[in-house]
């Protein structure tokens, strides 16, 4: 596919809203964002450049019906992707979370997408500094950085626009390189 695929899971709509904002910032380079509960593995795997987003529900797991996401989410979608070969794909990740309410597991679901990408051989881009966040622990921090962009619409919504713009500027060159190369 000659566009950047954007796939997300959502319950309250925040992760979907962020996907739409990212698509707008990417312009013509982005495909229309797709909710994973309305998608297939083939839909996602057709792209060489991807942005994947997840909310954080439950405790250290992917969001889905077991975490009371009524329409399903990544928990139900990931089995379709088991064993997928991601070599040659460049993937950027983002997640949403609430650092005040869940400081001990902030944005915890993001690590599961990261682990899947790494196991499949993808190049993951867009690691994000933890500076400016206030939390105790996040499994989504690897080597001192978040494995992707983390957005907190409950506690730091005033920083979202700036963070989105900076992160898109960071990941766009690597993602666009997959479209031309």
Automatic annotation (TrEMBL):
Cofactor requirements of the protein: FMN
Single annotated GO MF: FMN binding
Pfam families in UniProt: Flavodoxin_1
Source organism, top-level taxon: Bacteria
Keywords, ordered alphabetically: Electron transport, Flavoprotein, FMN, Transport
Keyword rRNA-binding: no
Organismal lineage: Bacteria, Pseudomonadati, Pseudomonadota, Gammaproteobacteria, Thiotrichales
Family: Belongs to the flavodoxin family.
Species: Thiothrix nivea (strain ATCC 35100 / DSM 5205 / JP2)
Keyword Electron transport listed: yes
Domain (Flavodoxin-like) ranges: 4-172
PROSITE patterns documented for this protein: FLAVODOXIN_LIKE
Gene3D superfamilies, alphabetized: 3.40.50.360
Protein's recorded name: Flavodoxin
Protein role: Low-potential electron donor to a number of redox enzymes.
UniProt cross-references to InterPro entries, sorted A to Z: Flavodoxin, Flavodoxin/NO_synth, Flavodoxin_lc, Flavoprotein-like_sf
């Amino acid at each position: 596919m000659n566009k950047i695929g954007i796939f997300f899971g959502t319950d309250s709509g925040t992760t979907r809203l962020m996907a739409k904002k990212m698509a707008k910032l990417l312009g013509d380079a982005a495909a229309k964002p797709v909710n994973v509960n309305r998608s297939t593995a083939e839909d996602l795997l057709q792209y060489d450049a991807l942005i994947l987003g997840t909310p954080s529900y439950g405790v250290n797991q992917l969001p889905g019906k077991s975490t009371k996401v009524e329409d399903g989410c990544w928990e139900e979608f990931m089995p379709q992707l088991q064993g997928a070969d991601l070599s040659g794909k460049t993937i950027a990740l983002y997640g949403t979370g609430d650092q005040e309410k869940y400081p001990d597991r902030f944005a915890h679901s993001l690590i599961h997408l990261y682990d899947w990408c790494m196991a499949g051989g993808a190049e993951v881009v867009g690691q994000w500094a933890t500076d400016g966040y206030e939390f105790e622990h996040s499994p989504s921090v690897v080597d001192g950085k978040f494995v992707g962009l983390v957005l907190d619409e409950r506690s730091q919504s005033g920083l979202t626009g700036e963070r989105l713009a900076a992160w898109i500027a960071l990941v766009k060159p690597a993602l666009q390189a997959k479209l031309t190369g």
